[in-house]
Design a protein that fits this description.
By secondary structure, this protein is α+β, with helices and mostly antiparallel strands. It has one domain: 3-methyladenine DNA Glycosylase, Chain A. The chain contains 4 helices and 8 strands. Strands 1, 2, 3, 4, 5, 6, 7 and 8 form an 8-stranded antiparallel sheet that branches. β3 (about 75-80) and β4 (about 85-95) form a beta hairpin. α3 (about 115-120) crosses α4 (about 135-140). The two termini are about 30 Å apart. The protein binds a DNA duplex (13 and 13 nucleotides) through β3, β4 and α4.
DNA sequence: CCAGGGATGGACT
DNA sequence: GTCCATCCCTGGT
């Protein structure tokens, strides 16, 4: 929990979204909600690429008030509501008007586990606490109020704890729940840590 | 104003 | 493993 480990803003400016996605594995996503610190190691992500990716909200350069955060310069978060219930968090990356983002799909709890369990009404710590995009946001206390917030803020940020994920321990697959995207649904843009138990389904 | 949709979760066998 | 309820927000009118 040392803010000196906070990832520098330039990390989020690369246009190589696939590479940035892989680099996020093993990093620590932290929130401070009403002075309660909770965090988890990122174990699973999905890349959503710009305007040519049919699975992306910004496909065909769709620019609305909802998708606007994705068009901003990298280094902020894009939160949206899914199925009317679940808040999903994306890390916006790339230059301004390069609308790409990385969905955080799973984390391994690190700090504030008790708080996370309270938010989820869990009595026993199991992987179900944070092994899904809607689950981890609830555990971390993330709501729509976090939309568009900078990762350089006091409310949410990402730390580097020098956990090295070897290239051979990064697996990929097609993305989850994007069947509507036709051919693009098959793209191998989901990345996760091999043999880690904190992975969705 | 309102119809439609959805980057899922959880309950159940 | 399978099934299906979910319900607020979005965006076009």
């Amino acid at each position: 929990m040392n803010s000196k480990n906070k990832i520098p803003q330039k990390f989020y400016l690369s246009d190589d979204v696939i590479n940035t996605s892989k680099l996020l594995l093993g990093k620590i996503l932290v929130t401070n909600v009403n002075n309660k610190i909770t965090s988890g190691m990122i174990t699973e992500v999905e890349a959503y690429l710009g305007i040519n990716d049919k699975a992306s909200h910004t496909y065909n350069n769709k620019r609305t008030s909802r998708t606007e955060p994705m068009f901003s310069k990298g280094g902020i978060v894009y939160i949206y509501l899914c199925y009317g219930i679940h808040h999903l968090i994306n890390i916006v990356v790339g230059k301004r008007d390069f609308p790409s983002a990385i969905l955080i799909r799973s984390i391994k709890p690190v700090d504030g586990i008790k708080t996370m369990m309270e938010r989820r009404n869990f009595k026993k710590l199991t992987k179900e606490l944070t092994n899904g995009p809607g689950k981890l946001t609830k555990a971390l206390g993330i709501t729509m109020k976090y939309n568009s917030i900078s990762l350089n803020s006091k409310k949410i940020w990402i730390e580097n704890h020098n956990i090295i994920i070897n290239k051979k321990d990064i697996l990929s697959s097609s993305r989850i729940g994007v069947d509507y995207a036709g051919e693009d649904a098959k793209l191998p843009y989901r990345f996760y840590i091999k043999n880690n138990k904190w992975i969705s389904k």
